[in-house]
Amino acid sequence: MNYSPYWPDGLAHHLSSPQPSLYENLETSASRHPSKVALHYYGGALSYAQLRQEVEALAGFLQRQCGVVSGDRVALYMQNSPQYVIGYYAILRANAVVVPVNPMNTTAELRHIIEDCGARIALLGEEVYENARPLLGDAISHAIVARYADYLADSTDLPLPAVVTAAVPDLDAHPEFSATSAPRSVRWRAALAAAEQPSPYVASPEDLAVIPYTSGTTAAPKGCMHTNRSAAHVVAASLQWCDLSPDSAVLCAMPLFHVTGMQQAMNAAIALGSTMVVMTRWDSRCAALLIERYRVGFWIAISTMMVDFMSLPDLERFDLSSIERLAGGGAAMPKALAERIEARFGVPYMEGYGLSETISATHINPPQRCKLQCLGIPIQDTESIVVDPTTLEVLGPQVTGEILISGPQVFKGYWGRTDATRDAFVEIDGIRYLRTGDLGYIDEDGYFFFVDRLKRMINVSGYKVSPAEVETLLFGHPAIQEACVVAVRDARSGQAVKAFVVVRAGADVSAQQITEWAHEHMASYKVPRIVEFVTALPRTGSGKVQWRLLQERENASPSLAG
């Protein structure tokens, strides 16, 4: 194993295996701390006993009234909320598999995931119900619909996101809400009130637990198959690495559908028996209020959040002294900002690295010796090397190559994609490694640094965007003949999307019209920030679009405004 001389003091290099499953962590914490607050939600609160009770009731409903059986995939398509946490653990309790879906996804994007993994059941926020409704009776047989405001306190002085308080058309008028058989939609409260009892929990370490979807180099997002073992390992390893106390509240500001928020905030807090402070939408002032009010000790935040947070004009008036650990990843933290963060919080910003294929962290900076703009070192039981991407020769310090990873957190493969799974792995010296598609190097201290993306991928505030997927969606516009998508530098989000567009003969369309159309057909972070019209795209002799030429041109251009 490639241990750095700066391995955290007193930390074992290996974890006992297997770790308790994610659901077993909830059982343990609820048994030990039944009256402890499991989560705060804009003034509302839920104890561990209440959380377990509602998880049991929803799991029973999934099994008894929705027909969920062991191994079934269940989609979770909603914002950060108490219902997200309850739904996630209820799916696991029902011996089923969580399929987290970005709530920004459109109907077409949702359809791909639902049909790809074969999920028949969906847990939805009411604000995305109309996106999912076209799939009812077609791909989805049962939907359980949540209203986030149901878990609010009677009154609060905290700023509430519009998605929590906004009036939604009367969904109950739809006929599926009065149906007694599939296709059927049920209100969240009604599902819990049914008080169905689930069958015994029987999931094993090698059973599938979570299938997060990731955009790869092809147009179609792929499902990453994670077992109870792989998911639990990351949580246990990260908790030991960060050395958190159960008394440390955890701010859940990162999206919980994303593997970082899911694992490092929600699942870590429950395994630790600490209190989650859940934010439905990011709001820098609200985050400061929550940290102060609930004495938050751990916060996982991407650099975009920190830029916004540190820009608060009256930041100095908030008591942030409770923060013990501040960590993140996704996009490199600017050096000047990292120094300001450490000066304000009194702790360094610990950067880490991970993928959907590893269900979060594989590398983290040692708490006692963080390096800036650095991925960190491989965590417990994790082997990582840098190789020549073509010859697979293992490279020495300071030589850039492809980062490879081997460890218990690595996924089983892509759902239904045997060819893609085969291509994702390579064996070197008898060890099976995941090819990350990321270029980086190792320094003399064993720390890993990111250089560029071998795969054609854009990183928008930690969200991975496949250019090929965006191009495919853009081709659906009647005025677009061809499109090539590249990354542009952005002061706030790290990178943004730019589209070079060739319009059809006789078509009359503006960049703004294309952008407005794109907002209706893809998640907002995928929408091109810039549309540039060209008469033709550069091509190779074989007719392939030379996207690298366009990307290199953008790399030489100044950053966008923040």
Please tell me about this protein's structure.
The protein has 562 residues and is α/β, with parallel strands linked by helices. It has two domains: 22-345, ANL, N-terminal domain (Rossmann fold, 3-Layer(aba) Sandwich); 459-555, 2-Layer Sandwich (GMP Synthetase, Chain A, domain 3), CATH 3.30.300.30. 28% of the residues lie in helices and 25% in strands. It contains 16 helices and 28 strands. The strands form six sheets. Strands 2-1-12-11-13-14-15-16-17 form a nine-stranded mixed sheet, with helices on both faces. α9 links the parallel β11 (249-252) and β12 (276-278). α2 (48-64) crosses α3 (82-93). The longest helix is centred in the first third of the chain and has 17 residues, at 48-64. The model has no long low-confidence stretch (mean pLDDT 93).
Keywords:
GMP Synthetase, Chain A, domain 3, alpha/beta, Rossmann fold, five-stranded parallel β-sheet, nine-stranded mixed β-sheet, 16 helices, 562 residues, single chain
User: Which segments are poorly predicted (pLDDT under 50) over 5 or more consecutive residues?
Assistant: none
Tell me the name of the CATH class of the largest domain.
Alpha Beta
What is the CATH architecture term of the largest domain? 3-Layer(aba) Sandwich
Shape: globular
Q: What fold name goes in the CATH topology slot of the largest domain? A: Rossmann fold
Strand content: 15-25%
For CATH, the homologous superfamily of the largest domain is named as ANL, N-terminal domain
How far the N terminus sits from the C terminus, by CA atoms, comes to: 41 Å
Estimated radius of gyration: 23 Å
Helix content: 25-40%
Mean pLDDT: 93
Write down how many β-strands occur, each being a DSSP E stretch of 2 or more residues. 28
| Spatial sequence of strands, sheet with the most strands | 2-1-12-11-13-14-15-16-17
Q: How many independent structural domains?
A: 2
Largest sheet: 9 strands, mixed
Structural class: alpha/beta
Question: How many DSSP H or I helices?
Answer: 16
